[in-house]
Amino acid sequence: MTDYGHELRFGTFLTPQNADPTGPVDLAVLSEDAGLDLVTFQDHPYQPAFLDTWTLLSWVAARTERVHLAGNVLNVPLRPPAVLARAAASLDLLSGGRVELGLGAGGFWDAIEGMGVPRLTPGQAVDALDEAIAVIRALWDTDGRGPLRVGGEHHRLAGAKRGPAPAHDIGIWVGAYKPRMLRLVGRTADGWLPSLSYLQPGDLARGNTTIDEAATAAGRDPREVRRLLNVNGRFSPTPGDGLDGPPAQWVDELVRYALEDGIGTFVLATDDPRTIRTFAEQVAPAVRDEVAAARAASGTASGPVRSAVALARRVDGIAYDTAPADVPVVEPGDRAYASLRSTYLRRGAPGVVLLPRTTAQVVGALGWAREQRGPLAVRSGGHGISGRSTNDGGVLLDVGPLDEVTVVDEATRRVRLGAGATWGKVAATLAPHGWAISSGDHGGVGVGGLATTGGIGLLGRSYGLTIDHAVAYEVVTADGTVHVVDREREPELFWGLRGAGGNLGVVTWVEIEAAEVPDVVLATMTFDASDPARLVERWGRVVEDAPRQLTSFLHLQAGGGGRQPLAQAMTVWADGDTTSAVAALEELLGAGPVLDQRATLTPYSGVVGPVAKHHDGGAPPVTRSGLLPAMTDAAAADLGRLLGSGEAMLVQLRATGGAGNDVPPDATAYAHRHQRFSVTSFAGRAGRAGLDDAWDRLAHPHMDGLYLSFETDPRPERLADAFPGRTLERLRALKRTYDPDHVFDQNFPIDPRE
């Protein structure tokens, strides 16, 4: 007797006949409405009486919302695996993760050969299927680097690009009966999918044994292979043999298959609507109940099984099996890990990623994280240039699921933003109200990071920093306490969160008073940067003298390798007065030789719009950051020399004056209220020694302070640049109160013991 503990699933196996093309679709919809989990279709591409199965699956995906979909089984000789991999991943993305792959080596070779495919021997067909699975898995592996090369006699990849990654772990189920195919299932497949009508007594037990032995030999847990079974029968009022009788008889038979033969998925082959409803409404629930009761009595472990490969990637010192049960956990061996491990610029390798969906789950996740070995990183969006929202070998607490954007008070334009929301989502949500919040220059930036660091944005000279309009935070401190703070409730913590929040806790939401912002003018200008010092000086002087409606960012790229040095200015005029905007922008055009220019009137959501997030990082970023009080000839000249030194491939300047300078320096933990520009440089070579030397010689003498999110220099003196004098003293006092054990020690750490 074998019970693998798989969660029970039930589905249908439908005929894709084309005499009435809507018929199979209607049966699929009925399967979902009746409560089944899975809809599958035969795949015989050589059969002119059938609809093409993949086309049908796509159509059904659009007509359904919940059921998973699969071919049963897809004819691999007639479906090139590289194309099938991309088709399956695409449909999985479009359907919200509802596609599975049932694959077969091909059974009707006269018909297959008639479609123009060379005949294979049975042994060759097994080899070809094995190679096909390798090709499919390789294309789905977007965590790898470089083009794909997979060798094979029948199927190969010779430099293909990776992706797309599917939305979920698509199961690869193989229809198999003979020992060689069964061993293939054990070695590499996610499921075994035979049909009961093709089996003889004892075949299920013998097949399970063969699969289990092959899985064990390959270093897998046999429970990794789901056991599925296509069944057929007839509901009748009087008992008969097997699945020929009343629903209660079916229940008894299927319970036996589940508990004795390990079947976790039953797929009913029928095109009869009444049979589908009876199966879904009377058989499936009863089978679930009886199997659950039997497992409870026997103590059989049930639920998902983590593969041996995944278990081997676990990091010593992290007690994975004790993680909070209600918090989604992603480990290095999981498919979702590739999309979570890295930030915008840094490729990380955390030992585990926690994805809490509520404040209570943040509390549980943080408490568990404190007990684990290694660093703790906290992430909202992962776009931060510093790359500190990931790590290597530690715990990553990702609040991305906390992404709701809610209007709290229309009259005061008070908006509650989940820390995991992106500013692109915020801008799009506020646009219909005619509101906006100044928030960086990229829609993929997360709310939590920006709203606890400062928030230098393209509305900054008009409306100030993001934190200047924050009115309340919810934060989980190191001891797991949930605080809601504002100017009246724990005002000192409220002060600290506005500029040094990464040192003080995990922010779950922030409330901000949005501004009424009409359509703005967005202008982009491309300049020849052959004389970077002159360009920087002229641009900076124009920006300093411009009305507050104008905020501009300038990005200069060094030349080399046949590339011309270029600069791009991204500028926003923060109202709809196009006449004044044109006058101000014309001044800016005089900064240097213009290669391209364009301007448009747009809502703020057109400046910082929603973007798809896929961060796969790279080497740890090497940057330096500083805040420039004013643009001087000397500063411009040295920034030009920095760009020409070969040590900086990119220099960015962001205007920070105007309304941001109206706030007193001690009003927030971001104390830099007299500087007019933020300057960031990115290394042009591997390692940081060259950039550090060039920056310290050329740029640093002109700077006064730095911006946290753009700085990666780990030397302790940078802390004083970020938090001057009295600000740092107040923050140390806050750390002694709220984080005495220095749990949050990764993002410009302020040691409470000093």
Average pLDDT works out at 95
What is the C-alpha radius of gyration, as a whole number of Å?
31 Å
Per DSSP, the total helix count is: 22
**What name is given to the CATH topology of the largest domain?**
TIM Barrel
SSE class? alpha/beta
Strand content: 15-25%
- The low-confidence parts are none
Q: What sort of overall outline do the alpha carbons produce when their principal axes are compared?
A: elongated
How many beta-strand segments? 31
For the biggest β-sheet, the strand order reads 3-2-1-13-10-9-8-5-4
The tally of structural domains comes to 3
Q: What's the CATH first level of the largest domain? A: Alpha Beta
Report on the structure:
The protein has 754 residues and is of the alpha/beta class. It folds into three domains: 9-298, Luciferase-like domain (TIM Barrel); 311-517, Uridine Diphospho-n-acetylenolpyruvylglucosamine Reductase, domain 3; 520-602 and 622-713, Vanillyl-alcohol Oxidase, Chain A, domain 3. 33% of the residues lie in helices and 20% in strands. It has a nine-stranded parallel β-sheet with strand order 3-2-1-13-10-9-8-5-4, with helices on one face. A seven-stranded antiparallel β-sheet has the order 28-25-27-26-30-31-29. A hairpin with a 5-residue loop joins strand 21 (470-476) and strand 22 (482-485). Helix 17 (532-545) packs across helix 19. The longest helix is centred in the middle third of the chain and has 26 residues, at 273-298. The protein is elongated and about 95 Å long. The termini are far apart. The mean pLDDT is 95.
